[in-house]
Design a protein that fits this description.
14 strands, single chain, about 325 residues, alpha+beta
Length: about 325
Amino acid sequence: KTLKIESQKNKEGQVIINLFSISDIFAYDDEFGFEITIDKISITDFNSIIFNDKFVEDASNYDLLDHKNFSFNIEGVNFKNNEFDLGIKKISLPKIKYGKLSSGEDFAQETSFEIKEISFTANPSNIDLLPLNVILASIGQQSLTLDLNTHSEVFDKELMLKIISKLGLNIIGGAALNLELDYSVPMDTFKYFSNNQSLIDELQNQNFESLNNFNNEILMELGKIQLNKVILQIEDLGVRKPLIIMAASNMGMSEEDVIYMSNEMIQSVLSPFIPVNAEKFANSISKFIEQGGKLTFSINPQNPLPIISTMGLFVMPDLAIESLGIKLLAE
């Protein structure tokens, strides 16, 4: 219905798009039986060179610091076909908040990303998705609906950049997952990568399946990153009980027997790896399976540890659990 573009040329003669906005989009295809509606798409501050055929080859040279007002938003997405309906209330990548390092360089100080209310509704006649509909019905939901958000903030500590990153995933009526990473990057390591884009390109193309082929210089620099704290939390919001009932039904067992069997299995899996802590960890997981609530895994060393030192500790997992302050608690 509406297309709006605001642009200008920079000193190099390149076209900079200050605003690209489309509202009320509707598309359909009778042959394949689908339709798409989008209320609004809005993008601010980007270089029109991204539309060039060769941009993918030169993407690494695209400097976001030249586009500090960049943002990306989509609202009201609905996709329908004969098998399912997919809706997204909002996808938002707000403007990055920039700051200056003590050395005077610009850096991304605060970033966030959000997807709000992704809803997936299966057609009742779709037999393949019947198990999903059964689980949804058991938690009082007609659609699989979830929210996703991330937030990252950087603090300049002169010799270190302290970074706190958070991720949240919430399945409405089902479960929630929250992750927090707190780590520090030495300023020298930050400059090592920021001053040499080719190193970042090499890291992105690196084969992580084998450390033998890994660039040792890059590995040593990454190993200097210090781990401050990690928290991973799973919360039951209603899906635990239906899953136990379904498992019991499929295996022809009682719910109590399913829980007992899962407890025994957890213990047997953990014992060979962490014999000293296996029982304690297994009890926490078993309590969560039986009672629900929250299960929290945390790493909280008394003093920040370089990642390369942390990796060495895992040769003896029980020692690593003690040294890194690793806990697994159900509440």
